[in-house]
Amino acid sequence: MLSHQETKNSAFQKHYDNYAWCSQRAWIEIDIAALSYNVKQLRQLLSPHTQLMAVVKADAYGHGAITVAQTALEAGASWLGVATVPEGMQLRESGIDAPILILGATHTLEQIQAIAEWQLQPTLSSPQQALIFSTALETIKGSSPIPVHIKLDTGMSRLGTHWGQASEFVQLVQGLPQLQIASIYSHLATADSEDTTVMKQQHARFESAIAQLKALGIAAPCLHLANSAATMSDRSLHYDMVRIGLGIYGLYPAPHLNDTVNLRSVLQVKARVTQVKTITAGSGVSYGHTFIAPNNMRIAVVGIGYADGVPRNLSNKMQVIIRGQRVAQIGNITMDQMMLDVSNIPGIQAGEVVTLLGKDGEEEISANDWAEKLNTISWEILCGFKHRLPRLALT
Ligand SMILES: *Cc1c(COP(=O)(O)O)cnc(C)c1O
Predict the structure, then answer these.
(1) What is the pLDDT of residue 19?
(2) pLDDT, tens digit (0-9, with 9 covering 90-100), for 253-285
(3) So what CATH class is 32-252?
(4) Is any ligand 1 atom within 6 A of the Cβ of residue 159?
(5) Is 115 helix (H, G, I), strand (E, B) or coil?
């Protein structure tokens, strides 16, 4: 064993320190302060009586559902939205007691039992589903009426009953003693588009459904329609609640909405350099040799790959930030590793931190940058990071 003094002075120690302060090869950092800031900023777009539902489905868009839910509730959200029953149960198990709406479809007896037991609130999208719930709840001993949310299809053509049949549907549910209508809602298909034609048409259809109900003397306890984009673009869509996913994570649904509210990106993806080497002109890099060194180069190997959620289609197209400077990724991204051209930054060493998404110094790379290169949307990028990457919550 080397003495403390000896190790402290050794070259070995310098490298050892680089590795030791974080044992991870790659990880995700979640900026809790940014998340809280975003919820507060978005809240400021809303009138005081409009509630904010934090949409935390898909493990909070890859950010970690429990941490995000707790932070969002503290910052001013009062509802949580999930896609599935297990997602709701996970939040309840962590001690969260805010109302939780399941946005996805639920039908089975097991799902209905869990909804009753864990006090989750289902979306009802059809009369058949309402009857299934009603029958199932009759068999569950001692269950009191459960709150349900009526979903109308106003043009998304996903879940929901056609808006023209809203009153029949609502009246049927009202006649089922096991079910209590907590809200009526719909979902917009084109809220992030600059062309508002379809959004306006959906808005009008939602209004017409509400008018049908009013004519029958039925007042909905809560109406909601807006996702992030609609919340940012048009106050008349806010109603009693908005359902915000992307925005709380600090991303804008479309460039034309960038000026509507100030948001800070919450998620950063980082990894470490694991080896640095010189390769000679003509050397091929990685599987398939899709990159050939045009001259002698310094390259860095980094411990993150497509099994962590970095899309392989970004191979030879993406940049990363190291020491506040952008460098090019080269060769095919492999399952667990990738290579960088660090020829222009002298002295890069194993252990140094590479930022794949996020900010380092003046440079910033966002999920939107990746989405553009891949012809997809930032939502998919965020949800793509795998559980092999630990989520570190930074306060
Ligand atoms: C996912 C989802 C949202 C949130 O959408 P964002 O665009 O991320 O804000 C809102 N409502 C429903 C029904 C959803 O499925």
Answers:
(1) 47
(2) 999 999 999 999 999 999 999 999 999 999 999
(3) alpha beta
(4) no
(5) helix
